[in-house]
Protein backbone atom coordinates (compact mmCIF):
# COMPACT_ATOMS: atom_id res chain seq x y z
CA UNK A 1 0.00 0.00 0.00
CA UNK A 2 2.87 2.35 0.71
CA UNK A 3 4.17 1.90 -2.85
CA UNK A 4 0.93 3.40 -4.25
CA UNK A 5 1.04 6.54 -2.07
CA UNK A 6 3.26 8.61 -4.42
CA UNK A 7 0.98 7.93 -7.39
CA UNK A 8 -2.16 8.68 -5.36
CA UNK A 9 -0.67 11.92 -4.07
CA UNK A 10 0.22 12.98 -7.64
CA UNK A 11 -3.34 12.32 -8.82
CA UNK A 12 -4.83 14.28 -5.91
CA UNK A 13 -2.56 17.22 -6.61
CA UNK A 14 -3.51 17.29 -10.30
CA UNK A 15 -7.19 17.13 -9.42
CA UNK A 16 -6.93 20.07 -6.99
CA UNK A 17 -5.26 22.20 -9.67
CA UNK A 18 -8.06 21.50 -12.16
CA UNK A 19 -10.79 22.32 -9.61
CA UNK A 20 -9.13 25.60 -8.66
CA UNK A 21 -8.74 26.58 -12.35
CA UNK A 22 -12.42 25.93 -13.00
CA UNK A 23 -13.42 27.92 -9.91
CA UNK A 24 -11.43 30.91 -11.12
CA UNK A 25 -13.05 30.74 -14.61
CA UNK A 26 -16.56 30.58 -13.11
CA UNK A 27 -15.93 33.57 -10.86
CA UNK A 28 -14.68 35.61 -13.82
CA UNK A 29 -17.77 34.76 -15.90
CA UNK A 30 -20.10 35.75 -13.03
CA UNK A 31 -18.40 39.11 -12.57
CA UNK A 32 -18.58 39.85 -16.32
CA UNK A 33 -22.30 38.96 -16.42
CA UNK A 34 -23.05 41.28 -13.46
CA UNK A 35 -21.38 44.36 -15.02
CA UNK A 36 -24.16 45.28 -17.54
CA UNK A 37 -26.75 45.37 -14.78
CA UNK A 38 -24.65 47.80 -12.76
CA UNK A 39 -24.38 50.21 -15.71
CA UNK A 40 -28.15 50.30 -16.24
CA UNK A 41 -28.60 53.79 -14.79
CA UNK A 42 -26.25 55.54 -17.21
CA UNK A 43 -22.96 55.40 -18.96
CA UNK A 44 -21.88 53.51 -22.00
CA UNK A 45 -22.91 49.90 -22.31
CA UNK A 46 -20.08 47.45 -22.38
CA UNK A 47 -19.10 46.01 -25.72
CA UNK A 48 -20.58 42.61 -26.42
CA UNK A 49 -18.09 39.85 -26.85
CA UNK A 50 -18.52 36.49 -28.48
CA UNK A 51 -18.77 33.41 -26.33
CA UNK A 52 -15.25 32.25 -25.67
CA UNK A 53 -15.38 28.49 -26.03
CA UNK A 54 -17.09 26.00 -28.23
CA UNK A 55 -18.35 23.97 -25.22
CA UNK A 56 -21.04 26.58 -24.46
CA UNK A 57 -22.10 26.72 -28.11
CA UNK A 58 -22.60 22.98 -28.23
CA UNK A 59 -24.57 23.09 -24.99
CA UNK A 60 -26.95 25.74 -26.37
CA UNK A 61 -27.32 23.92 -29.67
CA UNK A 62 -28.25 20.75 -27.84
CA UNK A 63 -30.91 22.32 -25.61
CA UNK A 64 -32.62 25.09 -27.60
CA UNK A 65 -34.97 22.88 -29.63
CA UNK A 66 -38.01 24.10 -27.73
CA UNK A 67 -37.07 27.78 -27.64
CA UNK A 68 -39.08 30.07 -29.92
CA UNK A 69 -39.17 33.83 -29.67
CA UNK A 70 -42.46 35.69 -30.02
CA UNK A 71 -42.95 39.01 -31.73
CA UNK A 72 -46.01 41.22 -31.22
CA UNK A 73 -46.79 44.12 -33.51
CA UNK A 74 -43.32 44.46 -35.00
CA UNK A 75 -40.81 42.86 -37.27
CA UNK A 76 -39.30 39.47 -36.65
CA UNK A 77 -35.80 40.89 -36.13
CA UNK A 78 -34.88 41.75 -32.51
CA UNK A 79 -33.82 45.27 -31.51
CA UNK A 80 -30.04 45.46 -30.93
CA UNK A 81 -30.53 48.28 -28.41
CA UNK A 82 -32.70 46.15 -26.12
CA UNK A 83 -31.34 44.60 -22.97
CA UNK A 84 -32.53 41.10 -23.91
CA UNK A 85 -30.79 41.05 -27.26
CA UNK A 86 -28.54 38.04 -27.83
CA UNK A 87 -26.27 37.97 -30.85
CA UNK A 88 -26.99 35.06 -33.21
CA UNK A 89 -24.67 32.15 -32.93
CA UNK A 90 -22.35 31.46 -35.82
CA UNK A 91 -20.09 28.59 -36.55
CA UNK A 92 -17.28 30.75 -37.89
CA UNK A 93 -15.92 34.22 -37.40
CA UNK A 94 -16.45 35.28 -41.05
CA UNK A 95 -20.04 34.00 -41.39
CA UNK A 96 -22.63 36.73 -42.10
CA UNK A 97 -26.32 36.88 -41.20
CA UNK A 98 -28.60 35.86 -44.13
CA UNK A 99 -30.64 38.62 -45.70
CA UNK A 100 -33.35 36.59 -47.45
CA UNK A 101 -35.61 33.66 -46.70
CA UNK A 102 -33.68 31.50 -49.13
CA UNK A 103 -30.45 32.33 -47.28
CA UNK A 104 -31.98 31.27 -43.96
CA UNK A 105 -33.25 28.08 -45.56
CA UNK A 106 -29.83 27.24 -47.00
CA UNK A 107 -28.20 27.93 -43.63
CA UNK A 108 -30.78 25.67 -41.97
CA UNK A 109 -30.03 22.83 -44.36
CA UNK A 110 -26.33 23.29 -43.69
CA UNK A 111 -26.84 23.20 -39.91
CA UNK A 112 -29.08 20.14 -40.24
CA UNK A 113 -26.38 18.30 -42.17
CA UNK A 114 -23.89 19.20 -39.40
CA UNK A 115 -26.20 17.74 -36.75
CA UNK A 116 -27.22 21.06 -35.14
CA UNK A 117 -30.96 20.41 -35.07
CA UNK A 118 -31.72 23.27 -32.71
CA UNK A 119 -30.15 25.93 -34.91
CA UNK A 120 -31.63 24.39 -38.06
CA UNK A 121 -35.13 24.46 -36.54
CA UNK A 122 -34.89 28.13 -35.65
CA UNK A 123 -33.52 28.99 -39.07
CA UNK A 124 -36.32 27.03 -40.77
CA UNK A 125 -38.89 29.00 -38.76
CA UNK A 126 -37.36 32.32 -39.76
CA UNK A 127 -37.23 31.30 -43.41
CA UNK A 128 -40.90 30.26 -43.52
CA UNK A 129 -41.98 33.42 -41.71
CA UNK A 130 -40.38 35.50 -44.40
CA UNK A 131 -41.65 33.33 -47.32
CA UNK A 132 -44.03 30.39 -47.00
CA UNK A 133 -42.87 28.99 -50.37
CA UNK A 134 -39.17 29.13 -49.67
CA UNK A 135 -38.87 25.33 -49.88
CA UNK A 136 -40.03 25.40 -53.51
CA UNK A 137 -37.48 28.11 -54.33
CA UNK A 138 -34.74 26.05 -52.71
CA UNK A 139 -35.81 23.01 -54.73
CA UNK A 140 -35.87 24.96 -57.99
CA UNK A 141 -32.44 26.46 -57.29
CA UNK A 142 -30.55 23.35 -56.21
CA UNK A 143 -32.58 20.61 -57.89
CA UNK A 144 -33.92 21.94 -61.24
CA UNK A 145 -35.88 19.61 -63.51
CA UNK A 146 -33.29 19.90 -66.24
CA UNK A 147 -30.73 18.21 -64.00
CA UNK A 148 -32.71 14.94 -64.02
CA UNK A 149 -32.03 13.61 -67.51
CA UNK A 150 -32.93 9.97 -67.85
CA UNK A 151 -30.30 7.74 -69.33
CA UNK A 152 -31.20 6.13 -72.65
CA UNK A 153 -31.65 2.39 -72.37
CA UNK A 154 -30.87 -0.36 -74.81
CA UNK A 155 -33.37 0.05 -77.64
CA UNK A 156 -33.09 -3.54 -78.76
CA UNK A 157 -32.22 -5.82 -75.84
CA UNK A 158 -30.71 -9.19 -76.59
CA UNK A 159 -33.69 -11.09 -75.18
CA UNK A 160 -36.32 -9.13 -77.18
CA UNK A 161 -38.78 -11.08 -79.28
CA UNK A 162 -38.37 -11.20 -83.02
CA UNK A 163 -41.68 -9.40 -83.53
CA UNK A 164 -40.55 -6.27 -81.68
CA UNK A 165 -39.70 -3.61 -84.30
CA UNK A 166 -36.88 -1.12 -83.93
CA UNK A 167 -39.12 1.90 -83.34
CA UNK A 168 -38.86 5.00 -81.21
CA UNK A 169 -41.21 3.74 -78.52
CA UNK A 170 -38.25 1.93 -76.90
CA UNK A 171 -36.63 5.28 -76.14
CA UNK A 172 -37.19 7.09 -72.90
CA UNK A 173 -36.79 10.48 -74.59
CA UNK A 174 -39.57 12.45 -76.23
CA UNK A 175 -43.34 12.38 -75.68
CA UNK A 176 -45.16 9.02 -75.46
CA UNK A 177 -46.64 7.63 -78.64
CA UNK A 178 -50.36 7.63 -79.33
CA UNK A 179 -52.32 4.44 -79.88
CA UNK A 180 -52.47 5.12 -83.61
CA UNK A 181 -48.68 5.50 -83.86
CA UNK A 182 -48.14 2.41 -81.75
CA UNK A 183 -50.47 0.29 -83.87
CA UNK A 184 -48.86 1.52 -87.07
CA UNK A 185 -45.60 0.04 -85.78
CA UNK A 186 -47.18 -3.43 -86.01
CA UNK A 187 -47.34 -3.22 -89.79
CA UNK A 188 -45.51 -6.04 -91.53
CA UNK A 189 -45.38 -8.31 -88.48
CA UNK A 190 -46.27 -11.96 -88.82
CA UNK A 191 -48.08 -14.29 -86.48
CA UNK A 192 -45.42 -15.95 -84.37
CA UNK A 193 -46.16 -19.57 -83.39
CA UNK A 194 -46.21 -20.55 -79.75
CA UNK A 195 -42.80 -21.67 -78.37
CA UNK A 196 -42.42 -25.35 -77.37
CA UNK A 197 -43.58 -26.10 -73.82
CA UNK A 198 -40.31 -27.97 -73.10
CA UNK A 199 -36.90 -27.09 -74.49
CA UNK A 200 -35.99 -29.48 -77.26
CA UNK A 201 -39.60 -30.59 -77.85
CA UNK A 202 -41.40 -29.74 -81.13
CA UNK A 203 -43.42 -26.53 -81.13
CA UNK A 204 -47.21 -26.87 -81.19
CA UNK A 205 -48.77 -26.32 -84.62
CA UNK A 206 -50.03 -22.84 -85.59
CA UNK A 207 -52.04 -23.04 -88.84
CA UNK A 208 -52.70 -19.29 -88.88
CA UNK A 209 -48.98 -18.47 -89.03
CA UNK A 210 -48.60 -19.80 -92.55
CA UNK A 211 -51.64 -18.13 -94.11
CA UNK A 212 -51.32 -15.07 -96.35
CA UNK A 213 -52.70 -11.77 -95.12
CA UNK A 214 -55.65 -11.85 -97.54
CA UNK A 215 -56.92 -15.15 -96.11
CA UNK A 216 -56.47 -13.89 -92.54
CA UNK A 217 -58.46 -10.76 -93.36
CA UNK A 218 -61.27 -12.84 -94.88
CA UNK A 219 -61.42 -15.14 -91.84
CA UNK A 220 -61.61 -12.19 -89.47
CA UNK A 221 -64.35 -10.64 -91.62
CA UNK A 222 -66.48 -13.76 -91.17
CA UNK A 223 -65.87 -13.63 -87.43
CA UNK A 224 -66.98 -9.97 -87.32
CA UNK A 225 -70.21 -10.80 -89.17
CA UNK A 226 -71.02 -13.62 -86.73
CA UNK A 227 -70.06 -11.83 -83.49
CA UNK A 228 -68.54 -8.36 -83.38
CA UNK A 229 -67.46 -8.84 -79.76
CA UNK A 230 -65.36 -11.91 -80.59
CA UNK A 231 -63.82 -10.04 -83.52
CA UNK A 232 -62.67 -7.18 -81.29
CA UNK A 233 -61.25 -9.58 -78.70
CA UNK A 234 -58.99 -11.05 -81.39
CA UNK A 235 -56.84 -7.95 -80.94
CA UNK A 236 -55.64 -9.43 -77.65
CA UNK A 237 -54.14 -12.51 -79.34
CA UNK A 238 -51.10 -10.98 -81.04
CA UNK A 239 -49.85 -7.78 -82.63
CA UNK A 240 -50.64 -8.92 -86.15
CA UNK A 241 -54.33 -9.44 -85.32
CA UNK A 242 -54.43 -6.21 -83.35
CA UNK A 243 -53.24 -4.39 -86.45
CA UNK A 244 -55.95 -6.02 -88.58
CA UNK A 245 -58.73 -5.30 -86.07
CA UNK A 246 -57.85 -1.64 -85.68
CA UNK A 247 -56.86 -0.72 -89.23
CA UNK A 248 -58.73 -2.95 -91.68
CA UNK A 249 -61.43 -0.57 -92.91
CA UNK A 250 -63.10 -3.04 -95.28
CA UNK A 251 -64.13 -5.19 -92.30
CA UNK A 252 -65.57 -2.24 -90.42
CA UNK A 253 -67.36 -1.04 -93.55
CA UNK A 254 -69.05 -4.43 -93.88
CA UNK A 255 -70.05 -4.34 -90.21
CA UNK A 256 -71.42 -0.78 -90.48
CA UNK A 257 -73.47 -1.34 -93.64
CA UNK A 258 -74.60 -4.86 -92.72
CA UNK A 259 -77.86 -5.75 -90.98
CA UNK A 260 -76.28 -8.06 -88.37
CA UNK A 261 -74.99 -5.32 -86.04
CA UNK A 262 -74.77 -2.20 -88.16
CA UNK A 263 -76.97 0.46 -89.66
CA UNK A 264 -78.47 -1.79 -92.33
CA UNK A 265 -80.99 -2.88 -89.70
CA UNK A 266 -81.85 0.65 -88.57
CA UNK A 267 -85.22 2.10 -89.64
CA UNK A 268 -85.62 5.80 -90.30
CA UNK A 269 -89.25 5.52 -91.42
CA UNK A 270 -92.21 3.55 -90.07
CA UNK A 271 -92.19 -0.05 -91.35
CA UNK A 272 -95.46 -1.36 -89.88
CA UNK A 273 -98.63 -0.32 -88.17
CA UNK A 274 -98.76 0.04 -84.40
CA UNK A 275 -100.40 -3.37 -83.99
CA UNK A 276 -97.97 -5.05 -86.37
CA UNK A 277 -99.90 -4.94 -89.65
CA UNK A 278 -98.57 -3.66 -92.97
CA UNK A 279 -98.60 0.02 -93.77
CA UNK A 280 -101.50 1.35 -95.85
CA UNK A 281 -99.68 4.36 -97.24
CA UNK A 282 -96.52 3.00 -98.87
CA UNK A 283 -94.33 5.44 -100.74
CA UNK A 284 -94.82 5.33 -104.49
CA UNK A 285 -91.46 3.70 -105.19
CA UNK A 286 -92.14 0.66 -102.96
CA UNK A 287 -95.92 0.37 -103.23
CA UNK A 288 -95.81 -2.48 -105.75
CA UNK A 289 -93.17 -4.57 -103.94
CA UNK A 290 -93.76 -7.67 -101.85
CA UNK A 291 -93.67 -7.57 -98.05
CA UNK A 292 -90.18 -9.08 -97.91
CA UNK A 293 -88.90 -6.58 -100.42
CA UNK A 294 -90.52 -3.73 -98.52
CA UNK A 295 -88.29 -4.52 -95.53
CA UNK A 296 -85.25 -4.00 -97.73
CA UNK A 297 -86.55 -0.97 -99.64
CA UNK A 298 -84.14 1.99 -99.95
CA UNK A 299 -86.75 4.43 -98.67
CA UNK A 300 -86.88 2.61 -95.33
CA UNK A 301 -83.11 2.26 -94.93
CA UNK A 302 -80.28 4.65 -94.51
CA UNK A 303 -79.28 6.11 -97.83
CA UNK A 304 -75.72 5.15 -98.77
CA UNK A 305 -75.05 8.70 -99.88
CA UNK A 306 -75.98 9.99 -96.43
CA UNK A 307 -73.75 7.34 -94.86
CA UNK A 308 -70.83 8.40 -97.02
CA UNK A 309 -71.45 12.06 -96.22
CA UNK A 310 -71.50 11.34 -92.49
CA UNK A 311 -68.39 9.19 -92.77
CA UNK A 312 -66.26 12.03 -94.11
CA UNK A 313 -67.83 14.98 -92.30
CA UNK A 314 -68.53 13.64 -88.81
CA UNK A 315 -66.39 10.52 -88.27
CA UNK A 316 -63.03 11.41 -89.88
CA UNK A 317 -63.46 8.85 -92.70
CA UNK A 318 -63.24 5.97 -90.22
CA UNK A 319 -65.82 3.20 -90.43
CA UNK A 320 -64.70 1.92 -87.04
CA UNK A 321 -65.36 5.30 -85.40
CA UNK A 322 -68.69 5.55 -87.18
CA UNK A 323 -69.78 2.14 -85.86
CA UNK A 324 -68.75 3.06 -82.33
CA UNK A 325 -70.13 6.59 -82.10
CA UNK A 326 -73.16 6.72 -84.36
CA UNK A 327 -76.55 6.18 -82.66
CA UNK A 328 -78.05 2.75 -83.29
CA UNK A 329 -80.48 0.31 -81.69
CA UNK A 330 -79.25 -3.04 -80.36
CA UNK A 331 -81.21 -6.26 -80.77
CA UNK A 332 -79.21 -8.73 -78.65
CA UNK A 333 -80.76 -7.49 -75.40
CA UNK A 334 -83.36 -5.17 -73.96
CA UNK A 335 -83.51 -1.69 -72.44
CA UNK A 336 -84.56 -1.48 -68.77
CA UNK A 337 -85.61 1.55 -66.72
CA UNK A 338 -85.68 1.16 -62.93
CA UNK A 339 -87.87 3.69 -61.10
CA UNK A 340 -87.87 4.23 -57.32
CA UNK A 341 -89.95 6.86 -55.58
CA UNK A 342 -91.25 7.39 -52.01
CA UNK A 343 -94.95 7.43 -51.18
CA UNK A 344 -96.41 8.45 -47.81
CA UNK A 345 -98.28 5.69 -46.01
CA UNK A 346 -101.08 5.69 -43.46
CA UNK A 347 -100.57 5.26 -39.75
CA UNK A 348 -102.12 2.27 -37.99
CA UNK A 349 -105.66 2.89 -36.71
CA UNK A 350 -105.33 0.30 -33.93
CA UNK A 351 -102.11 1.66 -32.40
CA UNK A 352 -101.04 5.06 -31.15
CA UNK A 353 -97.95 6.12 -33.15
CA UNK A 354 -96.07 9.37 -33.48
CA UNK A 355 -94.97 8.82 -37.05
CA UNK A 356 -96.35 7.86 -40.45
CA UNK A 357 -94.76 5.15 -42.59
CA UNK A 358 -93.12 5.90 -45.94
CA UNK A 359 -93.27 3.35 -48.76
CA UNK A 360 -90.55 2.99 -51.41
CA UNK A 361 -92.26 2.03 -54.66
CA UNK A 362 -90.19 0.27 -57.34
CA UNK A 363 -91.31 -0.56 -60.86
CA UNK A 364 -89.62 -1.35 -64.17
CA UNK A 365 -90.10 -0.39 -67.79
CA UNK A 366 -88.87 -2.79 -70.49
CA UNK A 367 -88.31 -2.16 -74.20
CA UNK A 368 -87.25 -4.87 -76.63
CA UNK A 369 -86.70 -3.93 -80.28
CA UNK A 370 -86.98 -6.22 -83.29
CA UNK A 371 -85.40 -5.98 -86.71
CA UNK A 372 -88.73 -5.73 -88.52
CA UNK A 373 -89.49 -2.38 -86.88
CA UNK A 374 -91.69 -3.66 -84.04
CA UNK A 375 -91.16 -3.28 -80.31
CA UNK A 376 -92.54 -4.75 -77.08
CA UNK A 377 -93.19 -2.36 -74.19
CA UNK A 378 -93.90 -3.58 -70.67
CA UNK A 379 -94.54 -1.83 -67.36
CA UNK A 380 -94.41 -4.12 -64.31
CA UNK A 381 -93.11 -4.51 -60.78
CA UNK A 382 -91.44 -7.84 -61.57
CA UNK A 383 -87.65 -7.85 -61.50
CA UNK A 384 -85.57 -8.21 -64.69
CA UNK A 385 -84.43 -11.77 -63.92
CA UNK A 386 -88.08 -12.91 -64.13
CA UNK A 387 -89.02 -10.85 -67.19
CA UNK A 388 -86.23 -10.56 -69.78
CA UNK A 389 -86.52 -14.19 -70.97
CA UNK A 390 -90.25 -13.76 -71.51
CA UNK A 391 -90.03 -10.67 -73.77
CA UNK A 392 -90.85 -12.57 -76.98
CA UNK A 393 -93.67 -12.32 -79.49
CA UNK A 394 -94.69 -15.92 -78.80
CA UNK A 395 -95.30 -15.28 -75.11
CA UNK A 396 -97.04 -12.02 -75.98
CA UNK A 397 -99.50 -13.82 -78.26
CA UNK A 398 -100.00 -16.60 -75.70
CA UNK A 399 -101.03 -14.25 -72.91
CA UNK A 400 -102.97 -11.74 -74.96
CA UNK A 401 -106.32 -11.13 -73.34
CA UNK A 402 -105.26 -12.61 -69.99
CA UNK A 403 -104.96 -16.21 -71.12
CA UNK A 404 -102.73 -18.84 -69.48
CA UNK A 405 -102.26 -16.77 -66.35
CA UNK A 406 -100.89 -19.80 -64.47
CA UNK A 407 -97.65 -19.86 -66.51
CA UNK A 408 -94.44 -18.16 -65.32
CA UNK A 409 -94.61 -15.92 -68.37
CA UNK A 410 -97.98 -14.50 -67.31
CA UNK A 411 -96.34 -11.10 -66.83
CA UNK A 412 -96.58 -10.68 -70.61
CA UNK A 413 -100.35 -10.24 -70.44
CA UNK A 414 -99.69 -6.55 -69.68
CA UNK A 415 -97.24 -6.05 -72.54
CA UNK A 416 -98.00 -3.62 -75.38
CA UNK A 417 -97.29 -3.99 -79.10
CA UNK A 418 -95.70 -1.11 -80.95
CA UNK A 419 -93.35 0.16 -83.63
CA UNK A 420 -90.14 2.20 -83.64
CA UNK A 421 -87.97 4.34 -85.89
CA UNK A 422 -84.93 6.60 -85.61
CA UNK A 423 -84.83 10.29 -86.43
CA UNK A 424 -83.26 11.48 -89.67
CA UNK A 425 -82.65 14.64 -91.66
CA UNK A 426 -86.25 14.52 -92.92
CA UNK A 427 -87.53 15.28 -89.40
CA UNK A 428 -85.31 18.35 -88.96
CA UNK A 429 -84.08 19.50 -92.39
CA UNK A 430 -82.82 22.83 -91.03
CA UNK A 431 -80.00 21.42 -88.88
CA UNK A 432 -76.87 19.44 -89.59
CA UNK A 433 -77.18 15.79 -90.61
CA UNK A 434 -75.22 14.53 -87.60
CA UNK A 435 -77.21 16.66 -85.17
CA UNK A 436 -80.52 15.43 -86.61
CA UNK A 437 -79.70 11.84 -85.61
CA UNK A 438 -79.96 10.34 -82.16
CA UNK A 439 -83.73 10.59 -81.67
CA UNK A 440 -85.95 7.53 -81.17
CA UNK A 441 -89.72 7.52 -81.69
CA UNK A 442 -91.92 4.70 -80.33
CA UNK A 443 -95.67 4.27 -80.78
CA UNK A 444 -97.50 1.55 -78.83
CA UNK A 445 -101.09 0.51 -78.24
CA UNK A 446 -102.85 1.86 -75.16
CA UNK A 447 -104.71 0.25 -72.29
CA UNK A 448 -107.85 0.33 -74.46
CA UNK A 449 -108.27 0.26 -78.24
CA UNK A 450 -109.11 3.96 -78.43
CA UNK A 451 -105.77 5.07 -76.96
CA UNK A 452 -102.24 5.07 -78.31
CA UNK A 453 -99.00 5.99 -76.56
CA UNK A 454 -96.07 7.86 -78.09
CA UNK A 455 -92.58 8.00 -76.58
CA UNK A 456 -89.87 10.42 -77.63
CA UNK A 457 -86.44 9.24 -76.50
CA UNK A 458 -82.81 10.14 -77.21
CA UNK A 459 -79.86 7.79 -77.62
CA UNK A 460 -76.97 8.68 -75.33
CA UNK A 461 -73.81 7.17 -73.85
CA UNK A 462 -73.55 6.28 -70.18
CA UNK A 463 -69.75 6.51 -69.91
CA UNK A 464 -66.42 6.64 -71.70
CA UNK A 465 -66.39 2.95 -72.54
CA UNK A 466 -70.06 2.16 -73.15
CA UNK A 467 -71.46 3.98 -76.18
CA UNK A 468 -75.06 4.53 -77.26
CA UNK A 469 -76.45 2.25 -74.52
CA UNK A 470 -78.76 4.74 -72.83
CA UNK A 471 -82.25 6.04 -73.73
CA UNK A 472 -83.18 9.39 -72.18
CA UNK A 473 -86.76 10.61 -71.98
CA UNK A 474 -87.75 13.66 -74.00
CA UNK A 475 -91.52 13.30 -73.96
CA UNK A 476 -94.41 10.88 -73.33
CA UNK A 477 -97.92 11.41 -74.71
CA UNK A 478 -101.28 9.67 -74.81
CA UNK A 479 -103.33 10.01 -78.02
CA UNK A 480 -107.10 9.43 -78.28
CA UNK A 481 -107.78 7.93 -81.69
CA UNK A 482 -111.54 8.69 -81.59
CA UNK A 483 -111.42 12.34 -80.53
CA UNK A 484 -108.00 13.20 -81.96
CA UNK A 485 -106.91 14.60 -78.61
CA UNK A 486 -103.54 14.14 -76.93
CA UNK A 487 -102.26 14.59 -73.40
CA UNK A 488 -98.73 14.64 -72.02
CA UNK A 489 -97.59 12.50 -69.10
CA UNK A 490 -95.35 14.00 -66.44
CA UNK A 491 -91.81 12.59 -66.28
CA UNK A 492 -91.14 13.49 -62.66
CA UNK A 493 -90.30 9.94 -61.52
CA UNK A 494 -89.21 8.41 -64.84
CA UNK A 495 -85.58 7.30 -65.22
CA UNK A 496 -83.49 6.58 -68.33
CA UNK A 497 -83.34 3.16 -69.98
CA UNK A 498 -80.06 1.23 -69.95
CA UNK A 499 -79.19 -1.58 -72.31
CA UNK A 500 -78.70 -5.08 -70.89
CA UNK A 501 -77.54 -7.95 -73.06
CA UNK A 502 -79.55 -11.18 -72.90
CA UNK A 503 -77.69 -14.26 -74.14
CA UNK A 504 -80.87 -16.15 -74.96
CA UNK A 505 -81.71 -13.53 -77.61
CA UNK A 506 -78.62 -14.38 -79.67
CA UNK A 507 -78.05 -11.63 -82.22
CA UNK A 508 -81.68 -10.54 -82.02
CA UNK A 509 -84.84 -11.50 -83.85
From TrEMBL:
Keyword Lipid biosynthesis recorded: no
Residues annotated as domain F-box: 205-255
Polar residues compositional bias, start-end: 147-169
InterPro entries (UniProt xref): F-box-like_dom_sf (IPR036047), F-box_dom (IPR001810), Hrt3/FBXO9_C (IPR045464)
Biological process according to GO: SCF-dependent proteasomal ubiquitin-dependent protein catabolic process
PROSITE patterns given in the database record: FBOX (PS50181)
Protein's UniProt name: F-box domain-containing protein
Species the sequence originates in: Venustampulla echinocandica
Amino acid sequence: MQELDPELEAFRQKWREEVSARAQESSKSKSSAADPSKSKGGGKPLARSRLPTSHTTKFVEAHDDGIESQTFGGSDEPDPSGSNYVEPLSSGEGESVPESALGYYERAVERENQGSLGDSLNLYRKAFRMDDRVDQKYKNKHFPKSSFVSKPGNRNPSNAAATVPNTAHHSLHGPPQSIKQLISGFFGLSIEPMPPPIEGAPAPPCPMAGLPSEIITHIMLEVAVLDIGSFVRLAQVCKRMAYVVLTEEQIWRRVCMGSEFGFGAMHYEWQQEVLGGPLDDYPPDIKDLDNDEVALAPAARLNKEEATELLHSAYESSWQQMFRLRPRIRFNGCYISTVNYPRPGQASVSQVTWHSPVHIVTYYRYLRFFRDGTVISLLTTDEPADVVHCLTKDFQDTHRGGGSSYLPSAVMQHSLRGRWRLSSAKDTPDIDLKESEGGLFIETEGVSPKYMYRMDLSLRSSGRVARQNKLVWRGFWSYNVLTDDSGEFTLRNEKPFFFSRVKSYGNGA
